[in-house]
Design brief:
The complex is a heterotrimer of chains A (421), B (328) and C (300). With 421 residues, chain A is α/β, with parallel strands linked by helices. Chain A folds into 2 domains: 31-147 and 305-371, Periplasmic binding protein-like II (D-Maltodextrin-Binding Protein, domain 2, 3-Layer(aba) Sandwich); 150-304 and 375-418, 3-Layer(aba) Sandwich (D-Maltodextrin-Binding Protein, domain 2), CATH 3.40.190. Chain A is built from 17 helices and 14 strands. Chain A has helices spanning 4-23, 48-61, 77-86, 101-106, 127-130, 155-160, 171-181, 196-206, 225-238, 254-259, 272-279, 319-329, 332-342, 359-368, 380-386, 388-397, 402-418; strands at 35-42, 65-72, 93-97, 134-135, 138-139, 142-147, 150-154, 211-214, 217-220, 265-268, 287-290, 303-304, 306-311, 371-372. In chain A, helix 8 (196-206) crosses helix 9 (225-238) and helix 16 packs antiparallel against helix 17. Mean pLDDT of chain A is 85; it is low at 1-30. In chain B, strands 1-2 form a two-stranded antiparallel sheet. Chain B has a single domain (85-327), classed as MetI-like (MetI-like fold, Orthogonal Bundle). Chain B has 328 residues and is mainly alpha-helical. Chain B has helices at residues 37-65, 71-76, 85-91, 94-127, 130-145, 148-158, 165-172, 187-214, 219-227, 232-260, 264-269, 281-290, 295-324, and strands spanning 67-68, 80-81. Chain C folds into 2 domains: 6-76, no CATH class; 87-294, MetI-like fold (Orthogonal Bundle), CATH 1.10.3720. The longest helix of chain C is centred in the middle third of the chain and has 32 residues, at 89-120. The radius of gyration of chain C is 24 Å and the shape is globular. Classes of the chains: A alpha/beta (421), B mainly alpha (328), C mainly alpha (300). Chains in contact: A-B, A-C, B-C. Chain A: InterPro entries: SBP. Chain A: It holds the Pfam family SBP_bac_1. Chain A: Keywords: Signal, Transport. Chain A: Belongs to the bacterial solute-binding protein 1 family. Chain A: It comes from Streptomyces physcomitrii.
């Protein structure tokens, strides 16, 4: 009977914990007496190259600050931000979706930045970012960037199939073109089953909506005839590729799927193209953009105007430094660079021309004309948290009855919009 | 929370060495030590740990369940008491009862599968030769040691809709409808996968414990029963099972409790979806807290869960004390 | 399986020898259902583990093929390189080991004292103490996460590994007490008394006489504690917020998928690396594990 292994184990553990004692304690603060500024940005919000560029530039301009950017995963981000806002030592700046700001502000988790609006040039802000960033007339979220989805396509694969992307102006033409490209190893379009932003666009085109307000009461709208038509189109399009029916565009990240080389199209923000080429440099110059086609040639497809705001948690230790960081990142100089590198819509209308020459941004601008938002109620966040729309889409795509599934999902949406608070 | 169904945690009763052996009389604590102050000193750290790390948080959870406690209260901390409101809201919610019903179904399916399979495996190990026994025990231990998160990830990969080996095998066996079948998108299939995963993780512990119980059955009993002409089935019913019954019931109670609390596998794999298909009570509680930011309602749901579980607990403790009584 | 011939049901290892050698072929045929069952069991147990490991070694194009092979045609270490070179892997590994081992050691230390008090000393409240320990083992940890978050925050213990250590200590403690108490009770105190007569102090007697006999128990409990703490995900995920350098492996593994996307090879390599310590320790000490569990009745 030998207990030597245990003793060894114990000794190893002890030495390890001792080692830990000596090495811990270097967290927090900054290096060399500088103040650390912790910033959370979302995955895909900035490219690795831009992040590095910004970090270097920022620290050069503010030698007393040590900028620490952490990239957060979308998966489970709600919990993470909640835990951070409620802690005593929150990150100094957090990027949150524009529609999320209100609920955090309502909970008194954010610093009121109203007095900085003028200094930041707030009167020029893009409305779709600035307005959701307010709560009870106070500004909590500072507009960071906006974007809407376009079609990112492979010029070479389209050419090979004999398709001219510039001629695609209606949905039917789009389907025809995609069918032509969807041959052999090439996927016509990689459309995962749960890209509900894309579905929302199709539903809006048909004249339906995700939820409608009837006499002050919100009701899920997926089961309206118009919405069902939108889903029908989604199903047709989805079938022209190998997108998984049971996941969304973030899992796996669709840009990385496209980088593998056999995907002809994805529906994404133009910035996705940079991630594609970052993963597969061979595809540089092979990517093109066109706005999501509408039902008829005279009107582009409706798109969800998405974007992010930057917020400062009330519990952040370095409020002034946080503001400095926000001022830099949302300032004209970096906004122009960001918009150009990531093909975003900059946070100010006055900067729009900065991206005019970009093909991605140009396509985005055409689509933005028909930009829409999710139902305008604070409870919408509860719907997204559980997202019955995604379940509905997967159910229909895997053979479920569209009508009854839509009714089921609409009931869930109605419940979420009525419940909550 | 990974301890909610921890394959690496054997039941208390399975471990003590002396339980089924006649206890040497000298093993009893000596009278001279009556109320030794040393004893209190020795248990002090354990008691302090239980008070501060267990009882205190539990009390806080109970308090929250009687408060209006949402994101704002979590951040600012000025929660006010609302009496039984959360419980009323919870018990009046049809979805909650649906979840309760599903939890019991989930538990029943799991526990029956686990116990039947584990018993069969244990009987099988007993009949194997030394080599076979070592191999089977070795593989059981391997599964048992497999971390929950790793196992869950592997199962996601096995049942992956496009490249999963399960779909490939099914298609090559002629079930062409499984080409690209999205398991986790279908209510029943997702439920079945979670059950498979939990059974796979739980059988080793139950089987090894039951096997160790089987080895304590005196051989002479078999001999005499066989001389009486008992068949294998009767032998099991009338000789083997009655003897291992106490330990069997103990393992059963533990599996009931563990599957009742199963959380991590479900959370990582489906988050309770599709729809509510795999939402059982612990998942419901976490969903309520994290997605809807209703920490009060979530706490109330947890308390109801604890109450429901305490029924099983009472049964478990009766078993435990029947076995351990004389030690205390 | 209950239909297998009962004649062979011989649990005691020693009694098996005389039967060997006689009527072999018949016995093999008669026992073939048993062997089949055993084979199926082993395959069902091992296949997911096997698949995890081989996927980790397969080149990506073999993984994403519609014609998967049971045995990899070619082997690669690339996925392991990807996993190991992923951000902070070494750090998270260290964190996990650190938290796990310190929690287990702390639990062993505290439990040894408590177990000794329960098994060797007589005092008022002994029964109540054991009842509390049994109850603690059933604690609804999943319901305690919000209160523990609040308590940790209010005592400035968020984002710190020692917080996790304390929680894992508490999760493993009750079980450790119960098992060690069982083992201690089986060691006759006379042995220690004899040593005391020979001039040892009480502590010395315990250390020289009882402690070595406790080895299997210590081994078993530390292993179970190790697995529990090594696995823990939810608390690690929720209590480590800003200090991403303090994350542990389970959290890293769960975020790994979203980071690596379609790279199942790297994901499986990461899972393998995560499972490895537990698997190795269990396999090496398998005898002690089962004997710790079966309390000496398994003499494999």
């Amino acid at each position: 009977m030998s207990y030597r292994p245990l003793v060894l184990l114990g000794a190893a553990a002890l030495s390890l914990s001792l080692a830990a004692c000596s090495s811990s304690g270097d967290s927090g603060g900054g290096e060399g007496g500088r103040t650390g500024v912790d910033v959370w940005l979302m995955r895909g919000s900035v490219s690795a190259a831009f992040q590095k560029q910004f970090e270097t530039g920022f620290e050069k301009a503010h030698p007393d600050l040590d900028l620490k950017i952490q990239i957060q995963e979308w998966n489970g981000i709600g919990e993470k931000v909640t835990a951070a806002l409620a802690s005593n030592d929150a990150p100094d700046v957090i990027e949150v979706g524009n529609t999320q700001v209100a609920q955090y502000a309502q909970s008194e988790g954010l610093t009121d930045l109203s007095d900085k609006v003028a200094e930041l040039g707030g009167d020029a802000w893009v409305k779709g970012l600035a307005e959701p960033g307010t709560y009870e007339k106070k500004q909590y979220g500072i507009p960071y960037y906006a974007a809407n989805r376009v079609v990112v396509y492979r010029k070479d694969l389209f050419e090979k199939a004999g398709v001219d992307a510039s001629k695609i102006t209606t949905r039917e033409q789009w389907i025809k073109a995609t069918e032509k490209v969807d041959k052999g190893a090439t996927q016509g379009i990689y459309l995962p089953g749960q890209n509900w932003y894309a579905l929302a666009g199709f539903i809006w085109d048909e004249g339906g909506d995700l939820a409608v307000n009837r006499n002050g009461k919100w009701q899920g709208g997926l089961d309206s005839p118009q919405a069902l038509k939108g889903m029908e189109f989604y199903e047709r399009l989805q079938a022209l590729g190998k997108g998984p029916k049971d996941s969304d565009e973030a899992q796996p990240p669709q840009a990385e799927v496209m980088a593998k080389g056999d995907t002809a199209q994805i529906i994404a923000v133009p910035g996705a193209a940079d991630i594609v080429t970052e993963n597969n440099p061979e595809l540089k110059d092979k990517l093109g953009f066109f706005p999501i086609p509408g039902k008829s040639a005279d009107k582009p497809g409706a798109v969800f105007t998405g974007g992010s705001d930057l917020v400062v948690p009330a519990a952040a230790a370095h409020q002034d430094e946080a503001y400095t960081m926000i001022k830099e990142l949302t300032g004209d100089a970096w906004q122009k660079k960001l918009a150009r590198t990531m093909s975003y819509v900059p946070n100010k209308v006055t900067l729009a021309e900065a991206v005019n020459s970009e093909p991605g941004a140009a396509a985005m601008a055409i689509g933005a004309v028909n930009g829409r938002a999710t139902p305008n109620t604070p409870e919408w966040a509860a719907v997204e948290a559980k997202n019955p729309i995604k379940n509905y889409m997967t159910a229909v795509l895997t053979g479920g009855n569209a009508k009854s599934e839509a009714a089921k999902a609409s009931r869930t949406i109605t419940g979420a919009l009525a419940g909550g608070s | 929370m990974s301890i909610v169904h921890e394959p690496g945690t054997p039941p208390p009763a399975a471990a003590p060495a002396a339980r089924r052996r006649p206890r040497p009389p000298a093993g009893r604590p000596r009278a001279s030590d009556r109320n030794s102050p040393w004893a209190y000193l020795l248990i002090a750290p354990a008691v302090a740990g239980m008070l501060y790390l267990l009882l205190y948080p539990l009390a806080r959870a109970v308090v929250i369940s009687f408060q209006d406690f949402r994101l704002r209260q979590l951040i600012v901390g000025d929660a006010s008491f609302v009496g039984l409101r959360n419980y009323r809201e919870l018990l009046g919610d049809a979805r909650f009862w649906e979840v309760v019903r599903r939890t019991f179904l989930f538990m029943a399916v799991n526990v029956v599968l686990i116990m039947v399979l584990a018993m069969l495996v244990a009987l099988m190990i007993e009949r194997l030769g030394r080599f076979g026994r070592t191999v089977v025990l070795g593989s059981l231990v391997l599964v048992w040691a497999m971390p929950v998160i790793a196992a869950t990830t592997v199962f996601q990969w096995l049942f992956h809709s496009r490249f999963g080996i399960v779909n490939e095998v099914l298609v090559s066996l002629g079930f062409s409808s499984y080409e690209g079948y999205a398991w986790l998108a279908h209510d029943k299939a997702a439920f079945a996968i979670i059950v498979t995963l939990i059974v796979w993780q739980s059988v080793p512990f139950a089987a090894i414990t039951l096997y160790s119980a089987l080895t304590t059955v005196p051989r002479e009993l078999y001999e005499s029963a066989r001389i009486d002409g008992a068949g294998a089935g009767r032998l099991f019913r009338s000789v083997t099972f009655p003897l291992i019954r106490p330990l069997f019931m103990l393992v059963l109670s533990l599996e009931v409790i563990w599957t009742f609390k199963a959380f991590v596998q479900i959370w990582v794999m489906t988050k309770g979806g599709p729809g509510d298909a795999t939402t059982i009570l612990p998942v419901y509680a976490v969903q309520t807290a994290l997605s809807n930011q209703r920490y009060d309602l979530s706490s109330a749901a947890s308390m109801v869960t604890v109450l429901l579980m305490s029924g099983v607990l009472v049964f478990y403790f009766r078993q435990l004390f029947r076995q351990e009584g004389e030690h205390l | 399986m209950t239909t297998a011939p009962v004649k062979t049901a011989a649990p005691a290892a020693g009694s098996r020898a005389p039967r060997a050698g006689r009527g072999r072929p018949v016995r093999w045929i008669r026992r073939s259902p048993l062997y089949l069952a055993a084979t199926v069991t082993v395959v069902l147990c091992l296949f997911p583990v096997y698949w995890m490991v081989t996927t980790a070694f397969k080149p990506s194009q073999d993984i994403q093929s519609y014609d998967p092979r049971l045995v990899p045609g070619s082997w690669t270490l690339r996925h392991f390189q990807d996993a190991v070179s992923a951000d902070g892997f070494g750090l998270f590994w260290r964190n996990s080991i650190l938290v796990t081992l310190s929690a287990v050691l702390l639990a062993l230390l505290v439990a040894l004292g408590a177990a000794y008090a329960v098994a060797r000393l007589r005092w008022r409240g002994r029964r109540q103490f054991m009842l509390a320990v049994f109850l603690a083992q059933m604690a609804p940890w999943e319901s305690l996460i919000i209160p523990i978050y609040i308590i940790s925050r209010d005592t400035d213990m968020l984002d710190r590994l020692p917080t996790l250590t304390l929680i894992y200590f508490m999760i493993t403690l009750p079980f450790t007490v119960v098992v060690l108490r069982g083992f201690l009770a089986s060691i006759p105190p006379e042995l220690e008394e004899a040593a005391q007569v020979d001039g040892c102090t009480r502590l010395g007697a315990f250390r020289r006489v009882a402690f070595p006999l406790l080895a299997p128990g210590l081994m078993a409990t530390s292993l179970f504690g190790f697995i529990t703490a090594w696995n823990e995900f939810t608390y690690a995920n929720f209590l480590i917020i800003k200090e991403q350098d303090s994350r542990t492996l389970p959290v890293w593994l769960s975020s790994f998928q979203s980071t690596f996307g379609t790279d199942w090879g790297a994901t499986m390599a990461a899972s393998t690396l995560f499972a490895l310590p537990a698997l190795i320790i269990f396999l090496v000490l398998q005898r002690h594990v089962t004997s710790g569990l079966a309390a000496g009745s398994v003499k494999g």
